Amino acid sequence: MSKSIISVFGSTGRQGGSVVRALLKVGNFKVRALTRNPDSDASKSLKELGVDVVKCDDGDSKEVIQEALKNSYGVFSVTFPFGRKENDYDIGKKVADAAFDAGVKHFVFSGLSPSNKISNGRFEVAHFDNKYKVEEHARKLSKQNPSFVSSFVYAPFYFQNFQTFFQPKKSNENGAAAAADEQYTISIPSDPNGKPLEMGDIEDIGPIVSEIFSNQTKYSGSVVPFAGSNLSGPEIANIFSKVTGKKVSFNFIPPSVFRTFGFPGAEEMATMFQYLNEFGAFNGFDKSIAPKITNLTTLEDYLKKSQLKLE
Fold it and tell me: Which of 98, 65, 77 is closest to 11 using CA atoms?
């Protein structure tokens, strides 16, 4: 008997890549990786693992996407609209509609909490609210046709961000200083007097999504948020100090200052941190589900595993 097909968007990215690896590890499904460039090195690596790589991107037309999803039992969708004309809702709705019309049985969407709804209109974080609109649309499709099951996973602030945008910076420039005396600063708009920052290793999303696909009835309509650590800024800095052996301190950048930095997305990111500082990432959602599925990675675990070096 042939295995059911799971089609994965973003298959060469962080979220989709984790889902592909987890599905291959479990081995219950045949994996179809959807990518804009089937000839990339990442795509070739997937082919070598036995993955069916198909040229398709969620920026394509609904008709093209629907054709790429043909004969799929399940679809994992993650949207990343930055630098594109379509927003999360436009992209996610199109993919959900294509999956519905292609006869897909289980649609799993990587969503986020509705910031505008939770804050009673005080904060509107576009990518949070637009992803939630996709969730609402998918739920409507499932209600319209119960054979189209929808489930949702909510990712937190990535630990991986500490290796990119929020990387600790050297705060003493004395070249003669001994290595042991080097000092670093982590600067984030996470208010130490607000809600702790919910964070996680994005690699943990794979086992969660794999479990959701393997137990359709159990997770029908469910939201599964996950976070391996829930820490204040000073606690984050202390863990960095512990693992790296360097002196790491925390610097709080008020969101009002952060939004003036001028890079694309600065204002939206500042509003996001205002929202997170007051309400947290998963306000009102059940955070007890994910730890029952997989052993969630803590910040300390991640720093040790990634062998992060401060430079």
Answer: 77
d(CA 89, CA 77): 12
Distances (CA, A) of 283 to 123, 125, 198: 14, 15, 11
* DSSP-assigned letter for residue 77: E
Alpha-carbon dihedral angle through residues 169, 260, 113, 118, given to the nearest 10 degrees: 130
Nearest to 129 by CA among 81, 83, 62: 81
For residue 231, report the phi and psi dihedrals to the nearest 5 degrees.
-135, 150
pLDDT exceeds cutoff 50 at 176: no
Beta pairing class for 72-77 and 5-8: parallel
Residue entry with tokens 């070096």: 309
Helix (H, G, I), strand (E, B) or coil at 114: coil
pLDDT in tens, 215-234: 999 999 999 999 999 999 99
